[in-house]
Automatic annotation (TrEMBL):
Keywords: Bromodomain, Transcription, Transcription regulation. PANTHER family: OSJNBA0053K19.4 PROTEIN (PTHR45926). The keyword NADP does not apply. It comes from the Eukaryota. SUPFAM superfamilies: Bromodomain (SSF47370). SMART domains: BROMO. InterPro entries: Bromodomain, Bromodomain-like_sf, NET_dom, NET_sf. This is Transcription factor GTE6-like. Residues 102-177 form the Bromo domain.
């Protein structure tokens, strides 16, 4: 890097025109902006977490129909009501199979709960964990208070349980065992013909659940898109507020002297490559025409405005102090009463990091 200014070993202190009351006001506003930035960081973290967890949709952006949360909830309720009606019709059709099985000549032992006491079956509940019978199934199928079956597969499972319990408790070859085995075979035969209807309903429900999940995801994504847009605008507003604060602070500090400019030039020669990149970035912000990628870079200190000079001064000061902590003896001065300007610079850097992480978009 080529410098157009001479260098020396000392960055002198200066005088501030900021009175105590004004300092407190600036300090208070800086603290408010700090809280503002912390809030933005929290919001940004939530948005980033959302986009890092969602799967990438295979559909093209133009085919994605974004709906609102309320619309999704309404559609989900409507879809659930329609699905419940279809299932009710399916269970009503299953009632034909139920009547055929319960009217069979072998069905009478299973029509009501097992009378354990009168039959003297003291070990029945030790063998059978979940008793079941046709009357209990019938009551569940006809329940109107919402406690009944919600899916035809629940009825199927209870029907099988009736026969499995009988075959589990009674010895093979006994009358009850044989009757249960006969009814189970007839039931499974009828169920085989009924099963395609159940499978078709399951397929419809699966597709509806996928559609509902996609709509919910799109609605949530739309919500986060709005949050991102608002966040982008807030970051722009924070940048504006920080710039105003910087101008206020710099306006109350005396101007950088020619001697200080020369001393800043000295510090440039002692900075690390990363720190030099920060210097170039600060200058480029003040002058968009400044070429940071040129093989030879010239910084005209005399044409830089005061805010930029103060930013460079504090960057240099911080860098040299870090080197001093590592054992290098570098004497630096500090502008009394301009501590607020340093704090503003640090928060501006935090906001710039936020801005770099968000999706690039114009301020709305």
């Amino acid at each position: 890097m080529a410098e157009s200014v001479p260098v020396s070993d000392h960055i002198p202190a200066g005088e501030s025109k900021t009175v105590p009351v004004e300092v407190e006001n600036i300090k208070k506003r800086v603290e408010e902006v700090v809280q503002w930035v912390d809030s933005l960081e929290h919001k940004l973290a939530q948005v980033e977490e959302f986009y890092s967890t969602i799967a990438v949709s295979n559909s093209s952006p133009s085919s994605r129909h974004v709906v609102g949360i309320r619309k999704v909830q309404q559609e989900a309720a409507r879809r659930e009501a329609v699905a419940a009606k279809r299932m009710h019709d399916l269970m009503r059709q299953f009632g034909t199979i139920f009547r055929q099985i319960t009217q069979h000549k072998c069905a009478w032992p299973f029509m009501h709960p097992v009378d354990v006491e009168s039959l003297g079956l003291d070990d029945y509940y030790e063998v059978i964990d979940e008793p079941m019978d046709f009357s209990t199934i019938k009551n569940q199928m006809e329940a109107k208070d919402g406690t009944g079956y919600k899916h035809v597969m629940q009825i199927y499972a209870d029907m099988r349980l009736v026969f499995e319990n009988a075959m589990k408790y009674n010895e093979e070859g006994s009358d009850v065992y044989s009757m249960a085995k006969t009814l189970l075979a007839k039931f499974e035969e009828k169920w085989t013909h009924f099963l395609p209807k159940v499978q078709e309903e399951e397929k419809i429900r699966e597709e509806e659940e996928k559609q509902a999940a996609m709509e919910a995801l799109l609605a949530k994504e739309a919500s986060h898109t709005k949050t991102t847009r608002d966040l982008s605008n807030e970051i722009c507003n924070v940048n504006d507020e920080l710039e105003k604060l910087r101008q206020v602070v710099v306006g109350r500090c005396r101007k950088i002297t020619s001697e200080e400019k020369r001393n800043i030039g000295l510090a440039f020669l002692k900075l690390s490559p990363d720190e030099l990149q920060k210097v170039l970035g600060i200058v480029a912000q003040a002058d968009p025409r400044f070429q940071t990628k040129a093989e030879v870079v010239t910084i005209e200190m005399d044409v830089l405005d005061e805010p930029t000079l103060w930013r460079l001064k504090f960057l240099v000061k911080d860098a040299l102090e870090k080197k001093k902590k590592k054992g290098e003896t570098i004497k630096t001065g500090e502008c009394r009463g301009t501590k607020q300007n340093n704090e503003v610079s640090k928060k501006r850097n935090a906001v710039n990091k936020l801005a770099e992480r968000r999706t690039k978009r114009p301020c709305l």
